[in-house]
Amino acid sequence: MRMIEQIAASFTEELYRLESSLFRKDSEQSTAVQFTSSHFGEGVTSMTLGLAISMSSLHSPQSIVAVEANMRKPSFQEYLEIVPPHSIFEVFEENLPLDQALYEVPKFGFRVLTAGQVREGDKKIDYGLSLQHFRDVLRKLRQEYRYILLDTPPAVPFMDASIICKEVDGVVVVVEADLTRYEVVSHTLEKLRTSNREALTGTILNKRELRIPKLLYRFL
Ligand SMILES: Nc1ncnc2c1ncn2[C@@H]1O[C@H](COP(=O)(O)OP(=O)(O)OP(=O)(O)O)[C@@H](O)[C@H]1O
Ligand SMILES: [Mg+2]
């Protein structure tokens, strides 16, 4: 939790700008924004939860839900230090009503829908079917929440992000600075745009190291 709070606090201004470009002020319509990356570990979960935390202080937390649409490497529980009684799999596999799987994060008040603990090697997950279920979940969430943030796996090794992308209004590709090549990012963006031509797409350059004091950048 400390790490995620630190990220939210140190990027307040950037997250505020991101929020203004993703969600239209003049509309009360429910908006779903997906976060993904090219490779593992670029900072997708940190940015998704960082934005949810930062938005909770600007809007009614009741209007925000963060969905862990990442069945490959779930980490919401660990990052938020929460143990929700139910996970999204119970909605998919055991017909648990969606309301019961939504968990209010005590410290911030927004809701999360988690994918539980790491189930790596768990052959029981039918990824294809689960991805179809996300469509229904998203449709239901749109009726209740103004702001929907989805954490999805990296787009190069998996199809998940491209499939979920068909259902969202915006996609943010998180790029780890000095690591992911420009060509790879272009390829990821193209892949997502092919899935959904309507969605707004953008990138976040994450983990950028400032080599000179931050204040001086505005003079460059
Ligand atoms: N802006 C940042 N500054 C410092 N550390 C960061 C930043 N963003 C992410 N990290 C760190 O990088 C690591 C990976 O971040 P995170 O788990 O958010 O990535 P991810 O893209 O969700 O990974 P995965 O592909 O496993 O889902 C974590 O240890 C996180 O604390
Ligand atoms: Mg993650």
List keywords for this structure.
Rossmann fold, 40% helix, binds adenosine-5'-triphosphate, seven-stranded mixed sheet, globular, P-loop_NTPase, binds magnesium ion, 220 residues
Could you state the order of secondary-structure elements as H and E? HHEHEHHHEEHEHEHE
Small molecules bound in the structure, each named once: adenosine-5'-triphosphate, magnesium ion
- Count of helices? 9
Bin the strand percentage: 15-25%
Q: Distance N terminus to C terminus?
A: 35 Å
Low-confidence stretches: none
Q: What is the CATH third-level topology name?
A: Rossmann fold
Largest sheet: 7 strands, mixed
Strand order of the largest sheet: 3-4-2-5-1-6-7
What is the CATH class designation? Alpha Beta
Structural class: alpha/beta
Write structural notes for this entry.
GO terms for molecular function: protein tyrosine kinase activity. This is ATPase involved in chromosome partitioning. It comes from Desulfomonile tiedjei (strain ATCC 49306 / DSM 6799 / DCB-1). It is a single chain. With 220 residues, the chain is of the alpha/beta class. The chain has a single domain, classed as P-loop containing nucleotide triphosphate hydrolases (Rossmann fold, 3-Layer(aba) Sandwich), CATH 3.40.50.300. Helix content is 40%, strand content 16%. The chain has helices at 2-10, 12-22, 44-56, 76-80, 88-94, 98-101, 127-144, 160-165, 182-195; strands at residues 31-37, 64-68, 103-104, 111-113, 147-151, 170-176, 200-206. The chain has a seven-stranded mixed sheet with strand order 3-4-2-5-1-6-7, sandwiched between helices. Strand 3 and strand 4 (111-113) form a beta hairpin. Helix 1 (2-10) packs across helix 3 (44-56) and helix 2 (12-22) crosses helix 3. The radius of gyration is 17 Å and the shape is globular. The mean pLDDT is 89. The chain binds adenosine-5'-triphosphate (ATP) and magnesium ion. Adenosine-5'-triphosphate is lined by residues 3, 7, 37, 40-46, 70, 73, 75, 154, 206-207.
